[in-house]
Amino acid sequence: MKILMATSEAVPFAKTGGLADTVSSLSIALADLGHEVRIVLPRYYGIDRGGLRQLEGAMGVHAGGGEVWSAVYVADLPGSPQKNPVAVYFIDHEQFFGRDGIYGVPAEPDFLDNPRRFTFFCRAVFQLCRKVDWYPDVLHAHDWPAALTTVFLKFGERNGGFAHTASLFTIHNLGYQGIYSKDNYYYTNLDWDIFYSAGFDDWNMMNLLKAGLLSADKLSTVSPNYAWETQMGQHGFRMDGILRNRSKDYSGILNGIDTAVWNPKTDPFLPKPYSAEDMSGKAAAKEALQREFGLPGDPEVSLIGMVTRLTEQKGVGELFGPTYGSAWSICRDMNLQFVILGSGEAWCENELRSLSSRLSNFKARIGYSERLSHLVEGGSDFFLMPSRYEPCGLNQMYSLTYGTLPIVRNTGGLADTVENFNQETGSGTGFMFDDLTPQSIYNTLGWAVWAYYNRREQVEAMRLRGMARDFSWKKSAKKYIALYERMSPASGSS
Ligand code: ADP
């Protein structure tokens, strides 16, 4: 099959979160299965043109009532099979993408012209296919920045080379919908009646994600449990009604992980590789992690790690404050060390700095570091994810692969991948709690630390059980193929 991924992020070119990992890993897994996959992405300022090849001639894109000219670059996706490489196209436009940041910068977290930037990008996707004379069987759009591609396909583009193209829209995070003033609608070049029939209308605003949910032939999200939760009020972010209505077209396919990058046997960021047969490298990673964060080098103390975007969604707010249950009381009451690597909202960063300065066994590193994230996964005994909601979550799968026991809230993809410890039978792969309260985090962390000191055999058996789990993309890529095969614009599914 010919598959085109329309996305605002893809590793190693542009990443703010799991979306970037998913798009690239899935594309590679699909190419490994013999399918023809291409990715289209804006050429952000941070992507060096040096390593890319420019396609001949400028490309005119219809947007805003006129023609907007752009250049197109192309490169092979690193890690994709040599015999069947995944081509990545970059849409280059100085005014829209010639600046720092993907969606914004700290001083302007959501660029004012984002609706126009991504409208232009979505229009450019079609022009690109015409330019290179390559038309996909499946247009696979990811999250709100690419949602408009499904609308354009349904309302106007499904002809010529796209006559048999079907669209799949994947939700990576329903919390981000691309809601803007409808003053920006003119830029889509769509008639006003389509504003209502495609479902852009959202309390007199323009909602890009909502129009995508109503226009795509099929919908998916990144775990079965999140697919169910998003149809319920609590995690539906006002889209639950639409998703319930479209439940026959809506499925959840668990993300995999990139096992070439996340594998303790080959990880170059660890001081010494390790495996279930020889865990000595894990002790070396723990020592290196303690050294890196300026903690006493104690092999016996339990070590809790976290790597996260610092934002309300990740449940980090519950760790702050002086109340019973917060990180402050956890670190005061329990025999443990706590390390956190994160970047994001300023209020979180300030709270972490403050905690680090007051507690000798709590260390925070503010920033983004691929190397340190590997060391935290490898060197920790437990990995904490108290997420408010979690569409899939990658870190708990990395943790299981690295023999690090996840302590997670029972939500989204966390519930699909972690199995709660049963201290009667010793079964399970991690520790889970239901309520997002400081008390629940405190109690569950306390339970995990208790097990670490008092049920060491069960804890070690759990580590090995987690390491034996297969989170590679192969299984999930096959599920996507089965879904693509069920899709057809003529089936009247939209
Ligand atoms: P989300 O996409 O909501 O941020 P995921 O768990 O799906 O959550 O993916 C997050 C990805 O980003 C993981 O690969 C994680 O290791 C990485 N990550 C997040 N914050 C940092 C950081 N400060 N440094 C390095 N990697 C990070």
Summarize the structure in words.
With 494 residues, this protein is α/β, with parallel strands linked by helices. It folds into 2 domains: 2-256 and 474-486, Rossmann fold; 280-471, Glycogen Phosphorylase B (Rossmann fold, 3-Layer(aba) Sandwich). It has helices at residues 18-32, 94-97, 114-132, 143-157, 192-197, 208-215, 224-229, 240-245, 280-292, 327-333, 346-358, 370-379, 395-401, 412-417, 438-454, 456-467, 473-486, and strands at residues 2-6, 36-42, 53-54, 59-63, 66-76, 87-92, 138-142, 166-171, 179-181, 201-202, 205-207, 218-221, 250-252, 302-310, 336-344, 362-366, 382-385, 405-409, 431-433. The strands form 3 sheets. Strands 1, 2, 3, 4, 5, 6, 7, 8, 12 and 13 form a 10-stranded mixed sheet that branches. A 6-stranded parallel sheet has the order 16-15-14-17-18-19, with helices on both faces. Adenosine-5'-diphosphate is lined by residues 17-18, 21, 307-309, 341-343, 368-370, 373, 392-395.
CATH architecture classification name of the largest domain: 3-Layer(aba) Sandwich
Number of strands: 19
The hetero molecules present are: adenosine-5'-diphosphate
Basic shape: globular
Query: Describe the biggest sheet?
Result: 10 strands, mixed
The CATH class label of the largest domain is: Alpha Beta
Specify the CATH homologous superfamily of the largest domain: Glycogen Phosphorylase B
The parts where pLDDT drops under 50 for at least 5 residues are 490-494
What integer is the average pLDDT? 95
The CATH topology label of the largest domain is Rossmann fold
Total number of helices: 17
Domain module tally: 2
